[in-house]
Amino acid sequence: MSKASDQPVAGAEGIRDAVASHSQTMGGVVDTLDRLALQVGHTRVSVWDMIVLVLVVVAVIAIAWSVSKLANRLLRRMTRLDDTQKLLAEKLISLLVWAIAILVGIDVLGIDLTALTVFSGAFGLAIGFGLQKTFGNLIAGIILLLDKSIKPGDVIAIADQSGQSTFGQIRKIGIRAVSLTTRDQKEYLIPNENLMVNQVENWSYSSRNVRMQVPVGISYHADIEKAEELMLEAARSVQRVLKAPPPTVWLDSYGDNAIRFVIHCWITDPEEGIGNVRSDVLKKLWWLFKEHGIEIPFPQRDLNLRDSAAWRELVDALRQPAANAPLRDPSE
What we know:
Elements: H1 3-6, H2 11-22, H3 24-35, E1 37-40, E2 43-46, H4 47-76, H5 83-109, H6 117-130, H7 132-147, E3 155-159, E4 165-173, E5 177-181, E6 187-191, H8 192-197, E7 200-202, E8 210-218, H9 224-237, E9 248-254, E10 259-267, H10 275-292, H11 309-324
Antiparallel strand pairs: 1-2, 3-4, 3-7, 4-5, 5-6, 8-10, 9-10
Helix pairs in contact: 2-3, 2-4, 4-5, 9-10
């Protein structure tokens, strides 16, 4: 069996010969490092082999990272591609660059993969099960970018397994997860697969216009026509509410304590939040109602007592102590 076949890093021998041919001093150092070896069965691993392996791995990572960054910069300068297409192209180019870099590194090192067929098969099977979710998220991210259903900048609401909804703006679509930032600057990393299998509300998919509702209750004694005018005035006074489509007011229902209305108004920047718009409308409406005498009712409850023999006995028992009580001297 030849020496090359005994070495797991056969490329180290070629690099050693190249170094020795250019410098006898360096060749002597390399020979010394090569003699410091560990023999395991038919496999011989020297210090020189490990040095070459580390240097090639570092070089491959550095070159692949640099080429990937350079390609991404060139893509960002291209005006024909939108943000989603640029992001998809960056992901695919990065995968291609790293795949080529790994293959080139294996070729430079001269690693004989046939000797590791059985081991690599079992190891690959284990990695396949372990990274199943990772590859699933990778494919899901590519699909999301291809169909443009979700892209950076979109405002979405997604429900988790417990039914709680998370609302925020997409900042980044990564290989494994989507970065979702809420209004309180909390950043959630949602796996790409969740966006594929769960129901997602995309508030800016085909249009950025979003209609929001502001519930309002007024007294039954109030002038509903005047109240509707004030509701529209309050909605139009908020800067973020669109003039077209204009705000509208609907009578929603007759409640136990109030006549319930709903103010419908449109905004075009849902990423800035909707709670603050609702707050501004209600605060403005509060002062308008006070100015024009429109009452906001309090909850009311009527207590009805039925007459019965037991009730009359209870009333008589309460009256008797008061009637039989001795009179006190006012001077006391």
